[in-house]
């Protein structure tokens, strides 16, 4: 509800600016789906050297969080096996 | 040294490249520069129409590269300025009829005769664009304050850079100050923030442009019109003059009175 109200007060040009910033980051990063996949795999290899990661549940995408664009990756950590 | 070649491009179609090319060319000619305008939109020619020269076309750029005629035979002298020339596009061919190399050669010859060569780029990023940028010393990017236009302009900036054309300059076209003030249109600062290139100038929305195109008389000839003034300012900046950006807000009557009385 709060978010709805906030958006109504935001001028359309500010919405346009934010959308553009998001769109342009995606365009500029220029990673094809297969390149994203390679990036994921390589990141995973590095992480695995240090942390026991559950590689079945990895999630990685460019996303927008409020005012920032970010490359967000979630690497679930395996529970310790005793 | 020869003339400076400027490509006028945008990515997005319909943002005002042809109008800008015709008018900046006219404005440059009006301050005694020797100017050649090249319509690189082969198959969809329009620069001739905006200049009112559509019934003077005998040969076009494809005729020149195919050596059906000499370059001088294809150049059309403007109706109003004897130092302004148009090299029209072909209407019955497409963009594969000319190669970037051929464009470069053509421009090298023209450079010896001209102070400025303005190349009107087609929309898009394919062969037409590649032809248009071949031989360019500098790029001017035209955009409107709209999301899709800005996105495409950004892409073009990246492509230009990878083709070795650095430091493009921006023209923000069709700006409506009333909408900017209401927060319904991106303003100058917003655009520069997003695109992060130098601003060459702004052109306000002006319905006189429709009228001038109807008549085939570039608006730059009417220095009192808002858009006409803007294009003339752009031309002066291109030759290196420092020109203040136009005041977009018209003074209200109250403001004018205050100014006279000394209250503002």
What's a quick, concise take on this entry?
With 82 residues, chain A is of the alpha+beta class. Chain A contains three helices and two strands; from the N terminus they run H-H-H-E-E.
Describe the fold and architecture.
The complex is a heterodimer of chains A (82) and B (264). Chain A has one domain. Chain A has three helices and two strands. An eight-stranded mixed β-sheet of chain B has the order 3-4-2-5-1-6-7-8, sandwiched between helices. The longest helix of chain B is centred in the middle third of the chain and has 16 residues. The mean pLDDT of chain B is 94.
Helix and strand topology:
The complex is a heterodimer of chains A (82) and B (264).
Chain A: H1 2-9, H2 12-29, H3 33-48, E1 59-65, E2 68-74
Antiparallel strand pairs in A: 1-2
Chain B: E1 4-9, H1 17-30, E2 35-39, H2 47-51, H3 61-65, H4 71-74, E3 76-77, E4 84-87, H5 100-111, E5 116-120, H6 127-133, E6 138-143, H7 147-162, E7 169-175, H8 177-182, H9 188-195, E8 198-204, H10 208-215, H11 226-238, H12 253-261
Parallel strand pairs in B: 1-5, 1-6, 2-4, 2-5, 6-7, 7-8
Antiparallel strand pairs in B: 3-4
Helix pairs in contact in B: 1-11, 5-6
- Basic shape of chain B: globular
Low-confidence stretches of chain B: none
Gyration radius of chain A (Cα, Å) is 17 Å
Return residue spans of chain A where pLDDT drops below 50 for at least 5 consecutive residues. none
User: How can the largest sheet of chain B be summarized?
Assistant: 8 strands, mixed
* Structural classification of chain B: alpha/beta
| Rounded Rg of chain B | 19 Å
Key words describing this protein structure:
heterodimer; A: 82 residues; alpha+beta; two-stranded antiparallel sheet; 51% helix; B: 264 residues; alpha/beta; Rossmann fold; 8-stranded mixed sheet; 12 helices; 41% helix
């Amino acid at each position: 509800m709060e978010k709805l109200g906030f958006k109504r007060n935001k001028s359309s040009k500010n919405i346009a600016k934010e959308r553009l910033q998001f769109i342009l980051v995606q365009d500029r990063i220029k990673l094809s789906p297969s390149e994203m996949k390679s990036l994921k795999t390589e990141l995973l290899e590095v992480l695995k050297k240090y942390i026991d990661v559950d590689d079945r549940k990895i999630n990685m995408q460019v996303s927008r969080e409020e005012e920032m664009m970010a490359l967000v990756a979630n690497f679930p950590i395996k529970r310790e096996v005793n | 040294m020869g003339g400076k070649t400027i490509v006028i491009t945008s990515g997005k179609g319909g943002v005002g490249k042809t109008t800008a090319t015709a008018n900046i060319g006219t404005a440059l000619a009006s301050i005694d520069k020797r100017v050649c305008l090249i319509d690189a939109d082969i198959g969809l020619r329009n620069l001739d129409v905006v200049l009112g020269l559509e019934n003077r076309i005998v040969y076009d750029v494809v005729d020149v590269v195919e050596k059906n005629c000499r370059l001088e035979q294809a150049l059309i002298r403007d109706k109003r300025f004897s130092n302004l020339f148009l090299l029209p596009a072909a209407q019955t061919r497409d963009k594969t009829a000319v190669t970037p190399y051929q464009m470069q050669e053509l421009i090298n010859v023209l450079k010896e005769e001209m102070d400025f060569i303005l190349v009107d780029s087609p929309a898009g990023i394919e062969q037409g664009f590649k032809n248009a940028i071949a031989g360019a010393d500098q790029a001017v990017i035209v955009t409107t304050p709209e999301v899709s236009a800005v996105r495409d302009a950004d892409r073009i900036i990246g492509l230009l850079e990878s083709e070795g054309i650095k430091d493009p300059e921006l023209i923000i076209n069709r700006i409506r100050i009333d909408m900017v003030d209401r927060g319904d249109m991106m303003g100058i600062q917003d655009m520069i923030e997003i695109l992060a290139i130098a601003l060459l100038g702004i052109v306000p929305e002006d319905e006189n442009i429709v009228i001038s195109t109807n008549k085939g008389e570039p608006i730059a000839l009417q220095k009192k019109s808002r858009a006409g003034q803007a294009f003339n300012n752009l031309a002066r900046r291109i030759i290196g003059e420092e020109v203040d950006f136009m005041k977009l807000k018209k003074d209200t009557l109250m403001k004018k009175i205050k100014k006279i009385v000394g209250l503002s």
